[in-house]
Amino acid sequence: MSSRDIGTEILEGINEIKQFKKGRFELRTSELSEPSPPQVIRLKLNLSQSAFAGLMGVSVRTLQDWEQGRRDPQGPAVALLRIAEQHPDVFNDIH
Q1: What confidence tier does 95 reach under pLDDT thresholds 50, 70, 90?
Q2: Is the separation of the CB atoms in 86 and 41 below 8 Å?
Q3: 3-class state of residue 62 by DSSP
Q4: For the chain, what is the radius of gyration of the CA atoms?
Q5: Mind listing the pLDDT tens digit for each residue in 25-60?
Q6: DSSP state, 10?
Q7: What is the pLDDT of residue 79?
Q8: Where are the alpha helices (DSSP H) in 1-95?
Q9: 10, 57 in Cβ contact below 8 A?
Q10: Which CATH superfamily is domain 38-94 in?
């Protein structure tokens, strides 16, 4: 475990905010890519609809709606799809 000085990190963060507000600091940002369609991710993981829906915490019907384009994943489901696509080992470890 690394030794961190949380107090110093908080103070540095506050100073960055102050500098940003004064126009002297550029905040780091990154854009998250949209995940592939759920069916593509599921097939790459070699999972049935039932197993993938269970891992995603949604009903099979919801997954089918996503896969058939009747509905789009929202919020946390998009984040889980992104993780499943970019780090499939996580899903394989829990399956």
Answers
A1: low
A2: no
A3: helix
A4: 19
A5: 887 788 888 999 999 999 999 999 999 999 999 999
A6: H
A7: 94
A8: 6-21, 38-44, 49-56, 60-67, 76-86, 88-94
A9: no
A10: lambda repressor-like DNA-binding domains (1.10.260.40)
**Rounded distance between C-alpha atoms, residue 87 and residue 5, angstroms:** 30
Amino acid identity, residue 11? L
Residue 70 near residue 84 (C-beta atoms within 8 A): no
Q: Which two tokens stand for residue 12?
A: 């540095």
Q: Which residues of 47-82 are buried (b: 16+ CB within 10 A; e: fewer)?
A: beeeebbbbbebeeebbbbbbeeeeebeeebeebbb
* 49 neighbors 55 (Cβ within 8 angstroms): no
Q: Which two tokens stand for residue 50?
A: 């039932």
Q: Which two tokens stand for residue 15?
A: 């100073």
CA distance 6 to 12: 10
Token duo for residue 94: 């829990």
| 63: its two tokens | 């997954």
